[in-house]
Protein 1
Amino acid sequence: MLERTYDGQVCSIARALEVVGERWTLLILRDTVFRPRRFEDLQRSLGLARNVLTTRLQWLCDEGLLERRLYQEHPPRYEYSQTEKAKDLIPVLAALIAWGDKYYAPNGPPSLIRHRGCGGSIIHRLVCERCGAVLTSEDLESQPGPGARSAAAGETPGAAIVRHG
Amino acid sequence: MLERTYDGQVCSIARALEVVGERWTLLILRDTVFRPRRFEDLQRSLGLARNVLTTRLQWLCDEGLLERRLYQEHPPRYEYSQTEKAKDLIPVLAALIAWGDKYYAPNGPPSLIRHRGCGGSIIHRLVCERCGAVLTSEDLESQPGPGARSAAAGETPGAAIVRHG
């Protein structure tokens, strides 16, 4: 279903975008992040045509991000819940929310993600695994990894240019 | 240029996706993250048609994510660098890289983002601003924020369904 337009890009961002770059994927994941959702609820939330939503949900199941469960037999009705693979995308969702709140929420954040119980707001930190320092973009650099070496040089323009120079 | 298909969604993810959900935007930002890039370099890296790349770069400049600088006058040649607004997307890029590395890098990560100097790898942490706890998805909940109250109830299906129940 998704156009695989990034095939020439040996890059984990490009590969991740093949899966989550589809416009509605992250919104479906947003709606299923806290609990399973029924097809009808998702359809109402997203305002998508039923056949379009069906296709996208099926694709997310095929990619291992959602699991489908029959909750009613007559007529058959399904609900969708997130797998661990989908839950591992929560830092992406959380970072997108923080950025959208900062630049595109003139009336204040539409929703607030909080620490359950404590009620504190969420901070996103990049931390160095080795020395424990909290990092900003200025502290980062990129190096070719093992996956870059396994591809032919002519096929890795993305990997080549992203290297820090 | 971008289809504004999320207009009915009062949600910072939806608003952020209006800007960065366009398929090539995050790849352009990836390529400019460490230093300014010339048009020719971006075109070679991304393999996009020149007119398509021109349109997208212009759009990113209009949205305040890139700044254009003339580096040669005859013939005119431009390079593009990231603004603070774009740099604030680095947590999104870093989280996408981590996820892509985990699930879509069978030969290992194509590139490694490291702490400059120290060489340590990068960990993404969600931290509670109030109590300092390191959080997982299980520790989060969502509440309507001030931006949700300012919109009419009938126009906020996304904000409504994302509420934790």
Protein 2
Amino acid sequence: MTLDNMFNPHSVAVVGASSGTLNPATIIFLNNLVSFGYKGKIYPINPNVEEVGGMKTYPSILDVPGPVDHVISGIKASMVPDLLRQCIAKGAHTLHLYTAGFAETGEGDRCNLQQEIVDMAKNSGVRILGPNCMGIYSPKVGLSFCPDFPKDMGKVGFISQSGSYSLVVVRGASARGVRFSKMVSYGNACDIDECDLLEYLGNDPETEIIAAYIEGTRDGLRLRKVLTEAASRKPVIIIKKGHTEAGRRGASSHTGALAGDDQTWDAIIKQAGAIRVEDFEELIDVLTTFQFFKLPKGRKTVVIGIGGGPSVRSADDCERAGLVLHHIPDEMVQELRKTAPFAGSMLRNPVDVGAYHVEWSRVIDVLAAWPECDLFLWQITPDIEPFPDEGMYRQWCMDRRAMFIEDFVKSGKPTAVVVHMVERREAMDILHVTRELCIKHGVPFYSSVYSAARAIVKFIDYHNR
Amino acid sequence: MTLDNMFNPHSVAVVGASSGTLNPATIIFLNNLVSFGYKGKIYPINPNVEEVGGMKTYPSILDVPGPVDHVISGIKASMVPDLLRQCIAKGAHTLHLYTAGFAETGEGDRCNLQQEIVDMAKNSGVRILGPNCMGIYSPKVGLSFCPDFPKDMGKVGFISQSGSYSLVVVRGASARGVRFSKMVSYGNACDIDECDLLEYLGNDPETEIIAAYIEGTRDGLRLRKVLTEAASRKPVIIIKKGHTEAGRRGASSHTGALAGDDQTWDAIIKQAGAIRVEDFEELIDVLTTFQFFKLPKGRKTVVIGIGGGPSVRSADDCERAGLVLHHIPDEMVQELRKTAPFAGSMLRNPVDVGAYHVEWSRVIDVLAAWPECDLFLWQITPDIEPFPDEGMYRQWCMDRRAMFIEDFVKSGKPTAVVVHMVERREAMDILHVTRELCIKHGVPFYSSVYSAARAIVKFIDYHNR
């Protein structure tokens, strides 16, 4: 109930907002509430200024005329106990502490300060989010801390103990067409923690896929329980970092988290039926797959793309990840020969039929009809193309690419596109134009054959369980 | 002697050039000879046209008035025996067959055709490069098959059995500031093979670092010998693909190569003292390291960067790759506290001192003076920045970044910069501006902490042997 209110507050106060150039309360929170068209009431709080960005400020929470649901704190840690007292008096539901400088410092007095506010909040009616976190992204009501997060909502709910990961994952997944129901960066988790949030998202009808970046937990038993419940209802995908000693030390000085033993985590995640991923890149791949990939009949893959070296590599990468490439039989090779130039073609799977003079639609038809083709993987390497004549040749390439995507979609076979990351500045544009084509057609894309294959295998495994 | 001439020919004939829109002999070879300012004589050969691109054409090699050193063939495979006969009669040194459709097809008559030209060339004075390859990039004389390869030369010699890899590696490494002495894409290797080329580069005074992408060999014993000799003189870095059955099949249908057993390859490479890398991304990382990184005293690394999550991850990634992160002692933490804001800082290594209000130069001074700091790794994640106010904030970020790089250079400690790959189109520009700053200062950069650490460890291992 409180968490539902936290994601859908009717009013938000931003404490510490001013017109200072690098004032985070203003540039991260207040400005984004305005630019996202937040639907509720916005109250900047600051006893030292009259207004900020044309909005009237209030000296304190207690001076706000109406009720205040959600309070965002951008003030110093030492001032937080006082603010919390006011939140309790005002009857606020949640206090989000962007404010850092608590237990994550490892300093005794700062740990005590964190404990002090936890004790004060207990049974007070106010729940604390953070400290040391970015807070809430809830596109439905227009709550965001980043100006370029999508304004439309989707079906992924994401919780992140790291503020950076919340940015990297939402931006990265959005660039692939994924959209979010809710997202929360929850930092030190002194009160609202990963268990509360996973339980909430598990029951949230707006969330169909759950993702989480977790550095540690204080309650392994409860985590196991909520994780198992959530994963019995929807896919739950988890990044758990801190494999090494240095990583665990890092987690501790980041959010004060007890990282715990890696094998224990692995067991908890597996037993719960959740999916563990290595890092945010893989999380984005898996989210993209769950959102856009159609479930193939099996793992038998046909790889198509230009370039012999990349084709050889893609065969290695597919098999390493658990996909299967069957050898195209001689009769079919002869049939493919009619549609593609003889010289320079590879027709054994991987298939490389070159860029020019190919009846691509027929190649795809022939391959799609083959019983050993459950899915297509189309690999594109912008750094090997277009090399002669940037202008004309490039337009020609892009036009053909648009046609090819349509051919794959028409084939009815699940298709994944790999647009390899590029080094050249000039090739970035090719990468992005291709990606936009994929989004337009609802075709998932990835940045390497291995990462595509790995995500697809996890997706198939999930559905086979 | 012949190979030296192949990389430095006094005259080049391009056979099959015409003004057709997608004529590869013209757009890949002839046009690039002109645009690169090739220093020798250029002879387009075509019996059906009078001129191409304003240059007079000759009906055949035999009609060229002066001597012809290097011949590039863009004509059909069936016409190659005749062309080879003319090359022999003319006294050409090398025939580069861009032409494909030989043994890589796996078809009997095409394998025979390849054998026919090999037999004909034997002891004829003409060496064959290819077939099925892109040929030579030799910046010193202005020979190139790609318009955006660098025009200036460097110290890396690279041989690639794959044309795609030749493009991806030269473009990718160039984008990081690496430059090449010579590069050759050698395809089916029917005559000039990896052994000839490695032997040549091993003795080439213009080449200080050798790189190779190899799909297979016909002469394991000789390969072992030339590799050992070359690696005794200079670093030799090798991509050998085809780990899996599908990969080996791919290699065979790509260049007709016998991929061989992976463990045997591994042993040959190790015993020779060469460095095996996984793929082109790692090759580019290692080349960048050998070209720009200063040899550190040891593996003790200090990681600096913004963002808690990425910092935790970087600790994991460094240790996984073999670098060592020591815990910053309490006294030093207290010293660092004077230079950075208390809240939100991580001061234990990884170090995250946030973006604002930091005396960065002093932070670096303090860390550089620490005996447990052999090298710096600075990680930058453009997808977590700049988030408020693209315009002003971004300029501020870039100005600070320029200052910070200077601080690292001044510290005297070997420094690697990691600019994480980005998903957002808007962040690409930040990535590139940062990379250009690094190139300007001769500081190597990488696209992930793991890949940086892995390359640095291989570099240290090489020098410790």
